[in-house]
Amino acid sequence: MRIRTVLISAIAAISLAACGGGKKSADTTPAGGGKSLYDRLGGQDAIKAVVKDFVEENVAKDTRINARFANTDIPHLEQMLTEQICMASGGPCKYSGKDMKTAHTGMKITDDEFNALVEDLKKSLDKFKVGDKEQQDLLGALGPMKPDIVGQ
Predict the structure, then answer these.
(1) CA 122 to each of CA 69, 116, 138: distance values in angstroms, whole numbers, following the listed order
(2) pLDDT at 61 over 90
(3) Residue 16, strand partner residues
(4) Are 90 and 38 in contact (CB under 8 A)?
(5) pLDDT for 78-91, tens place per residue?
């Protein structure tokens, strides 16, 4: 499995499970001149730390899904996930990977696998004490990817 696929699956999974698959939220930059979601998450270094924990501590140890990542270039996966979260949260990054549908075609990812990734991401967000509002805003921004990931 390609690293981009894993990146996208993980992010999309957590997004949709927590937010019910809503559209990208305007909450990445709150009204009234508040901080962007990217800033509220702590910027790129904080995103990298969460992604590293998510991939290396949770996904790698999750027997429900870790076989899907057996041949994955982990450093590349982490880079793609970081780019995607950074961009989705209103940060300065550009996601350089494939679109979700292209990346996941032929993989036949199930709802159960998607939900397992969501659970694993939630664990990392909780470990790093990411606030409930920030988690919901992030998941809302990423959630619309699920239809392009599951069942392709």
Answers:
(1) 19, 10, 11
(2) yes
(3) none
(4) yes
(5) 999 999 999 999 99
Its CATH architecture, for the domain 3-148, is Orthogonal Bundle (1.10)
The identity of residue 41, as a single letter, is L
| Domain definitions of the chain by residue range | 3-148
In the block, residue with structure tokens 């696998």: 113
Pairwise CA distance, residues 59 & 138, whole Å = 19
- 3-state secondary structure (DSSP) of residue 18: helix
Q: How many CB atoms lie within 10 A of CB 64?
A: 14
Beta bridge partners of 109: 150
pLDDT in tens, 113-150: 998 998 999 999 999 999 999 999 988 887 788 899 99
Q: Are 59 and 1 in contact (CB under 8 A)?
A: no
The pTM assigned to this predicted structure is: 0.78
> What is the chain's length?
152
